[in-house]
TrEMBL record:
This is Phosphotransferase. It comes from the Bacteria. InterPro entries: Aminoglycoside_PTrfase, CcrZ_PhaseVar_Mediator, Kinase-like_dom_sf. It holds the Pfam family APH. Residues 18-231 form the Aminoglycoside phosphotransferase domain. The lineage of its organism: Bacteria, Bacillati, Bacillota, Bacilli, Bacillales.
């Protein structure tokens, strides 16, 4: 795969792995210039670049084997820390994404269909059954049971463009203080609670949730936290499945511990 990237960037560039789960991203260096080069990025990247949500897209090349290679401007700066995630800038960025009719229109033009909670439940259940995870881990069976029980409260929500992986490592701050949200490979049209629920649960102290939501613009709170944890359970099961498919036992164990915590929260809310 690296050979294709070398062919795409041209002679004289040095490629260094940029990390990440897929291993498809590299930093290309030549003289004093740097590019972030990736294989098969989301076609949505050009639109996100145009509105300033990701670093500037420099070029896109389709290779002979069908792969699409993209190169983005490399910005000197840093990943955000967990503490940075409390910043109002993150909230404003999310509002910009979730309330943008332009982004929604473009993602739909690229063929993305809205993803409902019913559809998500059906898909994860099938995956868990196929991998034998329901029989293997009690926590997984308990979580799936909560998803089934609470499915009705997740229906009939306004579906918007969601990033779906708001880990602090996917947010970058340039030296000038601009914040960019990268790695849009999992983007979908779905319930925005997928994004802000993840942010609240893992980065914002619980006593600050109501204030954060008010500033974000959420005024209707009925079953909001239950809905939020429904998607957190779904996300945890998705990762457990992903690591199981790759035979990464240590990662599965880590995700199971997180899942147990979410299950306990669900139990406390339902009793």
């Amino acid at each position: 795969m690296k050979e294709w990237l070398e062919k795409a960037v041209g002679k004289g560039w040095t490629l260094t792995p940029a990390g990440g789960l897929t291993g498809d991203a590299y930093i290309a260096t030549k003289d004093n210039h740097k590019l972030f080069v990736k294989r098969n990025s989301s076609p949505f990247l050009a639109v996100l670049s145009a509105v300033g949500i990701v670093p500037k897209l420099i070029w896109t090349k389709r290779m002979e084997n069908g792969d699409v290679i993209t190169a983005q401007e490399w910005l000197e700066g840093r990943d955000l820390t967990k503490e940075d995630m409390k910043s109002g800038q993150i909230m404003e960025l999310l509002k910009k994404i979730h309330h943008s009719p332009e982004l929604l229109h473009m993602l739909m033009r690229l063929g993305k269909k809205p993803v409902t909670s019913d559809q998500s439940l059906l898909e994860i259940e099938g995956r868990l059954v196929r991998l034998g995870l329901l029989e293997q881990y009690e926590e997984v069976a308990v979580a799936l049971n909560y998803l089934v029980k609470l499915l009705p409260i997740t229906r009939n929500q306004k579906l918007v463009v969601c990033h779906c992986d708001l880990n602090h490592n996917n947010l970058l701050m340039s030296e000038s203080g601009e914040i960019f949200l990268v790695d849009w490979d999992n983007a979908m049209i779905a319930d925005p609670v997928i994004d802000f629920g993840f942010l609240l649960k893992w980065y914002i102290p619980k006593e600050e949730w109501d204030e954060w939501l008010e500033k974000y613009g959420v005024t209707e709170h009925e079953y909001l936290y239950e809905r939020m944890h429904w998607y957190l359970l779904l996300n945890a099961l998705d990762y457990i499945s992903w690591h199981s498919e790759r035979h990464e036992a240590d990662k599965v164990k880590e995700r199971l511990e997180s899942l147990s915590e979410l299950n306990q929260f669900m139990e406390s809310m339902m009793n």
